[in-house]
């Protein structure tokens, strides 16, 4: 395997930081990932050398920014293997992308009595927008259950696809269980009944290959900050035909072709969905991050992370009294667990003082917590720059935590 | 003892700890020692729900002084709860209203009382003050 | 006047750039402003040293980011003199802020047959969201006209405030006419009839003092990138009482308190309106920009810009065949004009090659163009780092352009 | 002359200009020289509306060759229109379809034909090709 982890860690300046005088062991990548120097420098250089509002500008800086922005769109397109840049919309993150679809698709296609199908393991960002839609339209939210291993109940799913189902929205990978869902199969089954599918890819793009044409999903969303890019940027992929059919989400500059007080005609795709001054710095920074990931080689990353995941699973399971929630056959390097009967918040606070950054709580997946009847978990989430040594540090820290609380 | 004097005592106590883990060891000890409150007092009414941990708070007013009883599902939070009770218990409402709890800052627990922590503690301190205000109002 | 323009220009690295081998004369500040080094360095440092997802994190980096983010909120609060940080919501820009109000306020308060009152000089971002709302609710959009000087017709306004008017939305300063509107009076008149007012402050914050409590407006919005801050961030101010009353705009992580599939309760203000991972880097960068502006002294900036504005007005008016659109008594340093019968696009393209960055077209204010029955203008827009020398360069370039096209 | 040859000629012409303003002077000249099209041809049907400028395009098919007539409200755009017509006029549909217009890039006008410029030119080139495709289809 061609994966020089030392060199990679060198690319991320923050990994050299210390907290409380201890080296930072950052295992909160499910929340957000760090940025390689090349992304940071790109953002800096834009502000120092070429900052300018894009589209419709006729001067040099504006031209240059526009070109770079549209090139970033093409980079995002290639990264998820979309057909055309008209299908790539820059949003502010996964959340704003899902909200855009829930609103725009909902306005056009969801009526009273209709059903929207999500799963029990969704992030709040893929629950609440649909709840809001269903409330507005008097539609019903249906929920695909998962088993105790954290795997979707595909039989239940099949039965829940009815003539009333208007859209299916599920995550590609779960941010609290680590499960990788069979999104291709999920899409195929929905398409058999002509039901479109939105895939929440917030937890997959940083871990592996995504091919929206292979999945054949109708919408796909992800956040830039979770894939080593800047904050405040995300991507909404939509099939052109659907994007053409649904109304725009927000109104504002750039998304209109012609405005009169009586009637407004909308700009063509993808601009129709990009109202106002976009976060062009974010988009170009994100493209650099995607280039960085591609440069390392997706298959290298997948192979490396698989080793890491297996190592973590084994080491964590060996800790006395540690219980992992989510043991799906296919998983990403995200582990939610309890340590004996220690409250996750207690454990997290102590781990922090040891320099180990984990997240505790519900991870914005309250229904997952309800499934297991727990109030929260400790979550360690790894990406390509994490190491076996860091897992060892986590494990020995957990041992120490257990002792502290058993006195 | 005055609220100020108790706070000073706690600050002194904590100044002896060499490192964070010793502090937490101590908070765990305090948390373990704090008497559990009555199951009956763990009512929805007394519950202060945070996303990270839960806190229950009950109060009584006797002979011009306020007495608190509190609990949490997390031990370290219980430890902090124990400190807060130590500082404010048996004080007259006016004292509770007027004094600020600078010890929290000084012993390095400020983060635990940040409004975004969502562990119930900020809301608990607020509620302690509200009880004091209510009791003072009752006195007229 | 205490205003060291050389030193200030030094603070903005991009101002030293050349285009086509000529020094950049950037007069497109109405579209976006450049960033002082301190803002650029802040963004860089966050990514290099403390990047982490905010709120609910219990580890060191997350704490630190959360603190800085909430401090940024307080900086924004102070900048516009809001009462409380619960009234300050970070959005992605002015456009997303207006869309949020149009949706959330509209859901709660706008019904069939109601009226929404905007003006003829609004930016598309303050037109289209209201059009979309009116279409959805079968309400009516009413438009306050302006006279040929570019001043709102206040008598017409008074008559248009009726029992059916649900909200008034006007800009503080116009991005194409330069007009500064009497927002305090506009608000007072609306409040006499208990009608709330939204002020689009996108073109005022970079030019002068804003005091939302003095204006007494109910909502106020602005974009970070137009006030020397990063891209992808903006502010929505709303009076607490109103923000409490209206439903949230987007659903997602952080904006909810408790989620079950049946019922979701929303987090308290301001978080209720900040769904998903926010652009914390943007917010903190914006706070630095606001600090930078405050540090120069608002009254110094106002005094300096007034000189600049007067100088520009005089010099431009002296050019043969130049016609300015918008001659309001109170104005910002934004000038829209025609040069003889030269097409604005032609003029803009040639100015560009001389190193002078202006904008041409409708400036996202088509109704303003319709008012004058023109298809667009050339627009030069100045901020605190522009100079009289730059205006002289613009003037001589315009002279040259006129000659080129009169052959 | 072939499309390629005409393009080469234009590239050579433009290579003589020392600076941007000279190029624009020349485009203005070309723009001024381009015959205005009939008011009747300035129909909505022939209009290609951009936000920055308008372009009108009409086409005719005669004896196996395509003839374009076009106009714009902006002079520099007219100049570019004149160049496009010069290159494509009187060519058989197949030639118009098969050749790409690399001269635009080489004489430095690429920006003017970027899809985000919104000056009507990209849409005009697209429409010119579409006319050619339609005429070719008619031939069978
Ligand atoms: C599965 C999943 N979906 C959606 C989101 C929301 O992403 P963002 O907060 O960047 O909008 C997250 C992030 O936590 C996530 O893990
Ligand atoms: C008056 C006015 N309102 C609103 C906007 C929209 O701001 P943004 O594009 O940053 O969302 C602008 C920016 O052009 C403006 O000038």
**Lateral strand order in the biggest sheet of chain A:** 4-10-9-8-7-5-6
- The portion of residues assigned to helices of chain A is 40-55%
Q: Specify the number of helices of chain A.
A: 14
The helix tally of chain B amounts to: 6
Element string of chain B (H = helix, E = strand): HHEEEHHHH
Quickly give the CATH architecture of chain B.
Answer: Alpha-Beta Complex
Report the principal-axis shape of chain A: globular
Overall, the morphology of chain B is globular
Per CATH, the class of the largest domain in chain A reads Alpha Beta
CATH superfamily of the largest domain in chain A: Type I PLP-dependent aspartate aminotransferase-like (Major domain)
How is the quaternary structure best described?
Answer: heterotetramer
Number of domains of chain B: 1
Report Rg of chain A. 22 Å
What is the CA-CA span between the terminal residues of chain A?
45 Å
Specify the biggest β-sheet of chain A. 7 strands, mixed
Largest two-chain interface: A-C, 95 and 95 residues
| Tally of individual domains of chain A | 2
Largest sheet of chain B: 3 strands, antiparallel
Strand residue percentage of chain A: 15-25%
SSE topology sketch:
The complex is a heterotetramer, with two copies of chain A (407 residues) and two copies of chain B (140 residues).
Chain A: H1 5-11, E1 18-19, E2 22-23, E3 25-26, H2 37-50, H3 60-80, E4 88-91, H4 94-109, E5 115-119, H5 128-137, E6 140-144, H6 154-160, E7 165-171, H7 183-192, E8 197-200, H8 212-215, E9 219-223, E10 234-238, H9 240-245, E11 256-259, E12 264-266, H10 280-296, H11 298-317, E13 322-325, E14 334-339, H12 344-353, E15 356-357, E16 359-361, H13 366-372, E17 377-381, H14 388-406
Parallel strand pairs in A: 3-15, 5-6, 5-7, 7-8, 8-9
Antiparallel strand pairs in A: 1-2, 4-10, 9-10, 11-12, 13-14, 14-17, 16-17
Helix pairs in contact in A: 2-10, 3-10, 4-5, 11-14
Chain B: H1 3-15, H2 20-33, E1 47-49, E2 54-62, E3 65-72, H3 75-88, H4 93-98, H5 102-106, H6 121-139
Antiparallel strand pairs in B: 1-2, 2-3
Helix pairs in contact in B: 1-3, 2-3
Bound molecules: pyridoxal-5'-phosphate (2 copies).
């Amino acid at each position: 395997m061609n994966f020089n982890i030392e060199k990679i860690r060198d690319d991320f300046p923050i990994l050299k930081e210390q907290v409380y005088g201890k080296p930072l062991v950052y295992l909160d990548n499910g929340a957000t990932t760090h940025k390689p120097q090349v992304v940071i420098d790109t953002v800096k250089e834009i502000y120092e050398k070429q900052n300018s509002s894009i589209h419709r500008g006729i001067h040099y800086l504006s031209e240059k920014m526009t070109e770079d922005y549209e090139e970033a769109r093409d980079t995002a397109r290639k990264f998820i293997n979309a057909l055309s840049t008209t299908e790539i919309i820059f949003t502010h993150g996964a959340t704003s992308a899902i909200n855009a679809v829930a609103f725009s698709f909902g306005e056009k296609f969801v009526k009273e009595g209709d059903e929207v199908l999500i799963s029990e393991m969704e992030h709040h960002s893929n629950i609440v927008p649909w709840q809001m839609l269903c409330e507005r339209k008097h539609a019903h939210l249906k929920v695909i259950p998962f088993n105790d291993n954290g795997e979707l109940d595909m039989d239940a799913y099949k039965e829940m696809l009815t003539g009333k189902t208007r859209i299916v929205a599920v995550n590609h990978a779960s941010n609290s269980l680590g499960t990788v869902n069979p999104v291709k199969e999920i899409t195929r089954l929905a398409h058999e009944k002509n039901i479109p599918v939105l895939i929440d890819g917030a937890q997959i793009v940083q871990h592996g290959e995504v091919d929206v044409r292979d999945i054949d999903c109708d919408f796909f969303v992800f956040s830039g900050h979770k894939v080593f890019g800047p904050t405040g940027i995300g991507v909404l992929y939509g099939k052109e035909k659907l994007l053409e059919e649904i109304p725009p989400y927000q109104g504002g500059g750039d998304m209109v072709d012609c405005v009169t007080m009586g009637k407004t005609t909308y700009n063509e795709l993808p601009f129709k969905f990009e109202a106002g001054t976009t976060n062009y710095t974010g988009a170009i920074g994100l493209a650099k991050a995607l280039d960085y990931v591609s440069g390392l080689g997706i298959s290298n990353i997948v192979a490396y992370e698989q080793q890491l995941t297996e190592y973590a699973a084994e080491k964590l399971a060996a800790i006395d009294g540690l219980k992992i929630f989510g043991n799906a056959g296919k998983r990403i390097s995200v582990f939610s667990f309890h340590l004996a009967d220690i409250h996750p918040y207690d454990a997290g606070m102590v781990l922090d003082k040891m320099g180990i950054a984990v997240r505790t709580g519900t991870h914005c997946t309250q229904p997952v917590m309800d499934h297991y009847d727990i109030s929260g978990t400790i979550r360690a989430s790894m990406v390509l720059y994490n190491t076996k040594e860091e897992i060892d540090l986590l494990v020995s820290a957990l041992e120490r935590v257990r002792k502290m609380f058993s006195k | 003892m005055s609220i100020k004097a108790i706070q000073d005592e706690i600050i002194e106590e904590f100044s002896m700890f060499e490192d964070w883990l010793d502090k937490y060891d101590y908070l765990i000890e305090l948390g373990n020692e704090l008497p559990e409150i009555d199951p009956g007092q763990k009512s929805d009414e007394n519950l202060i729900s945070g996303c990270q941990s839960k806190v229950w708070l009950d109060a009584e007013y006797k002979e011009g002084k306020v007495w608190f009883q509190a609990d949490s599902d997390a031990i370290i939070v219980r430890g902090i709860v124990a400190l807060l009770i130590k500082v404010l218990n048996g004080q007259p409402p006016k004292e509770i209203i007027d004094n600020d709890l600078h010890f929290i800052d000084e012993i390095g627990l400020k983060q635990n009382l940040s409004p975004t922590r969502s562990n119930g503690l900020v809301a608990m301190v607020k509620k302690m003050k509200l009880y004091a205000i209510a009791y003072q109002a009752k006195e007229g």
